Each structure stands twice: as C-alpha cells, then as structure tokens.
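Thought: the user wants the 3D structure for the chain below. I'll pass the sequence to the structure tool as-is, report back what it returns, then summarize two notable features.
Action: structure_tool
Action Input:
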Amino acid sequence: MNTPKIFESEYRFCEILWEKEPIGSGELVELCAQRLGWKKSTTYTVIKRLSERGVVKSEKTVVTSLVSREQVQEAESQEIVTRSFSGSLPQFVAAFTRGRKLRPEEAEEIRKLIEDYQD
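Observation:
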C-alpha cells in the first residue's frame, strides 16, 4: 500500500491522533482547539478528508489511524531523497550531517542501522 501524502497541518493533527488513539471525535475536537487553535468544523473537515484518503477511520464517533507515524516518516523521507538528491541516500546523509558533528553514539547507531539493512 502506498502511504497517502499528508500535509503539514494534517501531520500535526495525526500527531495528536497517534498519541491518543482510539479517541472520540469530541475529545479530538477539544484537543485540536487547544493545541492547534482549530475550530470544530476544521477538525471535522480534516477527519473527513483524511478518511477519504485512507489515513484515518471514523466509526461511531471514534477516530483511529490507518497509517502509522513510521509509515508517514518513511514515505516523506523517501520523497525527499528522490526529489532533492536524485534518489542518492549517501548524498542525503552527507547533506543532513554537513555542518554538524555526530556524537559517537549517533555514529554508532547509524552504523548499526546500515549493517541491519545491507543486502
């Protein structure tokens, strides 16, 4: 399944959902008002729009995600690598780390990730 594109404001909404799900739509409206400054109608519009795109499910006033945070992060990072770095992961890593030093534990964690995902 391809992960649907989630825009910035939708992502902030999803962060609340991922933190609290399953959650009643009324409580979700309150949280979006507090954290995002949204009106009730805005929250319901986003729920409807994300439901239509297969990102969330709203049944009997309970909202749950159909796409995980990790799936969204993976899709976004792959899009950035493809669009900005012609699909080159080494170029992406070089750009990401340029201008900053990695702490030894960060470098070790990256080494382990590479080893785990090598062919």
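Final Answer: Structure generated. The two ends are 23 Å apart (CA to CA). The first strand starts at residue 23 and ends at 24.
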